[in-house]
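TA notes. Do not distribute before section.
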Amino acid sequence: AECNFESGPRNDELQHYKPENATVRDGYLIITAKKEDAGGKKYTSARLTTQNKRTFQYGRVDIRALMPKGQGLFPALWMLGAAHGTVRWPKCGEIDIMETIGGGERDNVCYGTLHWDRGGHVYLGGNVALPAGRLLGDEFHVFSIIWTPQEITWYLDDVRYYAMDITPAEMSA
């Protein structure tokens, strides 16, 4: 999908976003985090968005990616609801297809989470860990969701690790 570079602070992050930290080489999107001063921050990285490029409800999303390793890194592949421009987060909803919390033993755990508003921020999710000695940054993995009117199911390398009922009664619980 065609992407836009996005800048500006978000979530009290420690990095400043620079477009040159995102490159495409040999058909791969490469996002590089660097220890360098920029924009009042001590690190730089890149953030891309496909907002207003495509809107959909239900289906399957697969993302093949190689995760970075290391303390302080928090890579994520996620989607916001189409109403994000008018109702903001978390009312617009968020589906985290995958996220990791970098550093040591955590570099082998993949999380899938839903965020929404019920008079305040609510979230539920699950996770899966690779076998001991294997890290998400050792090789490419496929992170997926299948979204139906009844549930969202998360997969790592086509193996189901979490499912959540998204019928109205469950979402208001």
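Switch to the second chain here.
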Amino acid sequence: MQYPWIEKSNRIFTGVLIGQFVLSFLIAFFTGTWTEAFVLGAAILAVPLFLIFSQPFAAITRHSVGIAIQLFATLHIHQSSGLIEIHFEIFVMLAFLSFYRDWSVILTSVIVVAVHHIVFFILQSQGVPAYIFEQSHLQFYILIIHALFAVTEAALLMFVAKTSLREAQAGLQ
């Protein structure tokens, strides 16, 4: 369906994604992670922007945005060597997805976050230079705490998205 809020959300997320790309370079200025910022950032940015402009109302477009905003958050976490404060970006981006009023996009996004945290936790624990937490916070219980917060927020946001969708559909009628 071609709801007006999807078009508006796509415009918002075009700015958000470009902002996250720029933020990658700001972080790189302090951490020397220029290659990651450019190569990974450009790859993350390309797909959702292409879909926003070529298939603005397709479900795959919304899901690609939900994935990309979290991939940018994971890039920023990695660039900052797991700085705990950068994890706030995950929660902010989950909340932004409410604009789409599509609970499944929030679910997709939180699954990406969960997989990223588990995989990077394992990699970092094995000494691979892939960062999820600062070295002093590389503890399993911290991973569980992060997961519980993310899943709780996502569950609430999915409920809000479903409710908001019903209300908006009623308003259109």
